[in-house]
Design goal:
Layout (H helix, E strand, L loop, with lengths): L21 H15 L3 H6 L8 H11 L6 H12 L4 H10 L9 H13 L7 H11 L2 H9 L5 H19 L4 H4 L2 H21 L16 H19 L11 H12 L42 H10 L1
Length: 313
């Protein structure tokens, strides 16, 4: 089997990602070396082909200054230059905030969050990984795995795949109507049309029926008719016709307006009728101004009289 030299690898690092992809880059280089049977000495001699952009400029400057002389020293200086000091903390926060979306398969979610773990320079414990993934799982997955007694990362991965398979079978089962051919659907439409035409032929008057919409009743006309009938009935029986406004909200407002209005000359201030003075009124004395007759106030607090005094002053 012919080996692929490092110069032909389509694998380059540019140093523009603030070190987030550097760990993945180094792991992929390691796997390529194993698959192509390339030693670290040969890899270091061809390392110029693994960099581009800012990372390539840094590599050339380091070779000229003899900052590294082998692949091990190159990796150490590469991490020191491009990896931020709090990279592991940032990646752990990113993994903690990675929630399983609605409708997302467990395998896709598990792969993404494990990819974040692999990008760390220092690996965290399996228990910590399990806790982060378990906290970010959806409720239906947690509920199913709790019954199965899942307590490790390996079982979490195993039962997550089983739940994915069951959900896929349940929610993506082919519908019965989709299996029917177009000819069967056309036959059903033709049968329904023939049954409709047959029903119309048995009832010849069905097509000649005419439906008319009744006119809406006029509320004002009905109300006027009712009031007229009530008035005529009162006149026949000798009773006083009922005032349609009396007892209504409008009648109440009219009574209140009459109460607070200044009565005309010759009208009793107490009962608001003519023919006598309020001193001789047979009805119980109410509250009104003794000077102008304004209702519901006494003379010292009458707004009309006070205004007249202010204008005269």
């Amino acid at each position: 089997m012919k080996r692929i030299p490092v110069a032909e690898w389509r694998l380059k690092y540019d140093g523009k990602d603030q070190g987030r992809k550097l760990t993945e880059f180094l792991k992929e280089v390691k796997m390529r070396c194993i698959s192509e049977d390339i030693s670290e000495k040969e890899l270091f001699r061809s390392a110029i082909h693994l960099f581009t952009g800012r990372a390539k400029d840094w590599f050339i400057e380091g070779v000229e200054n003899r900052e590294f002389r082998n692949w091990h020293e190159l990796k150490r200086e590469l991490k020191r230059e491009f990896l931020p000091p709090d990279l592991d903390f940032q990646l752990e926060v990113q993994a903690t905030e990675r929630r399983q979306a609605r409708g997302e398969k467990f395998t896709d979610f598990f792969h993404d969050i494990m990819k974040i773990f692999h990008s760390m320079t220092r690996s965290i414990s399996e228990r910590r990984k399990f806790n982060i993934i378990w906290r970010n799982l959806r409720f239906e997955y947690k509920n199913a795995m709790t019954g199965a007694g899942v307590r490790s990362l390996s079982k979490l991965k195993k039962y997550g795949r089983i739940i994915d398979e069951n959900n896929w079978t349940m929610f993506h089962r082919p519908h019965e109507n989709s299996a029917r051919g177009r000819s069967a659907q056309l036959h059903e439409v033709a049968a329904s049309e023939s049954s409709k035409s047959k029903g119309n032929s048995q009832n010849p008057n069905a097509a000649s029926r005419v439906f008319t919409r009744s006119k809406p009743k006029n509320d004002s006309t009905e109300k006027t008719k009712t009031l007229t009938e009530t008035k005529n009935l009162g006149e026949k029986s000798g009773e006083k016709p009922v005032d349609p406004v009396e007892g209504s909200s409008k009648g109440t407002l009219i009574q209140m307006a009459e109460k607070y209005r200044r009565p005309p000359i010759g009208v009793c201030y107490n009962c608001r009728t003519s023919g006598h003075h309020y001193v001789d009124c047979p009805k119980p004395k109410g509250k009104f101004c003794r000077i102008c007759g304004f209702g519901d106030v006494m003379t010292p607090a009458c707004p009309v009289c006070q205004k007249n005094e202010a204008d005269s002053a």
